[in-house]
Write a structure and sequence with these properties.
The protein has one domain. It is globular, with a radius of gyration of 15 Å. The protein starts with a helix and ends in a 20-residue tail after the last strand. A hairpin with a 4-residue loop joins strand 3 and strand 4. By secondary structure, it is of the alpha+beta class. The protein contains six helices and five strands, in the order ααββββααααβ. It binds iron/sulfur cluster (SF4).
C-alpha cells in the first residue's frame, strides 16, 4: 500500500485494500438513524446495530455483515446515496469532499487509541437494539461532531 494514497487517488481509483483501510472503524455508521419524512433530515441515535460490539465499537462479523443485516449500507463511490448515511467525520466523506484525513485517523497515528480518546468513535457510547428503545427517544448529536 503506497503512502498517503488518499491524497493522490479518488475513492474510485483506490484498490480494495486501500479503500478498506480508509475506514477509521469509528462505528458511527453502525448506529440506527431516523429520517424526518417531511424534511428528509437525518438524525443519528445511539442505538447500535445488533452486530456492533458496544465496548470496542467494531462490527462483530464484518465479513458477513451484509447477509446478516440486510439494510447495512455498503459505501460505494458509484452510489451517491450511500454517502448520505455517513457522519461528517467519516473518512469516505472527507476524501470525497476534498478534505484531509483528521489527525486522529488510524492511518496517521497507527492505532485507534487517539480516535477513542477524542471520543470520535462509538466505543462505550451506544445502547443495544435488543433493549427495545424507540428511535426518537434516543436521538443524539455526538455522532455529528467532527474534529480535525
Ligand atoms: S462512519 Fe465511515 S469511517 Fe466510520 S466506521 Fe463507518 S464507514 Fe468507517
Amino acid at each position: 500500500m503506497s503512502n498517503a494514497f488518499w491524497q493522490t487517488k479518488t475513492l474510485e481509483q483506490m484498490t480494495s485494500e486501500e479503500f478498506e483501510s480508509l475506514c477509521d472503524g469509528c462505528g458511527k455508521c453502525c448506529l440506527n438513524k431516523v429520517i424526518d419524512d417531511d424534511t428528509d433530515d437525518l438524525y443519528f441515535t445511539d442505538i447500535a446495530c445488533r452486530l456492533l460490539d458496544s465496548k470496542s465499537g467494531a462490527c462483530r462479523d464484518y465479513s458477513n455483515r451484509f447477509s446478516l443485516v440486510p439494510d447495512c449500507v455498503k459505501v460505494d463511490p458509484a452510489d451517491e446515496e450511500s454517502f448520505l448515511w455517513l457522519p461528517p467525520s467519516c473518512s469516505y466523506r472527507r476524501v470525497r469532499e476534498g478534505r484531509p484525513l483528521p489527525s486522529w485517523h488510524p492511518l496517521l497515528t497507527g492505532s485507534k487509541a487517539q480516535m477513542h480518546k477524542l471520543k470520535m468513535s462509538v466505543a462505550g457510547r451506544s445502547v443495544p437494539e435488543s433493549r427495545g428503545y424507540g428511535l426518537v427517544e434516543r436521538i443524539v448529536s455526538w455522532p455529528l461532531v467532527d474534529r480535525d
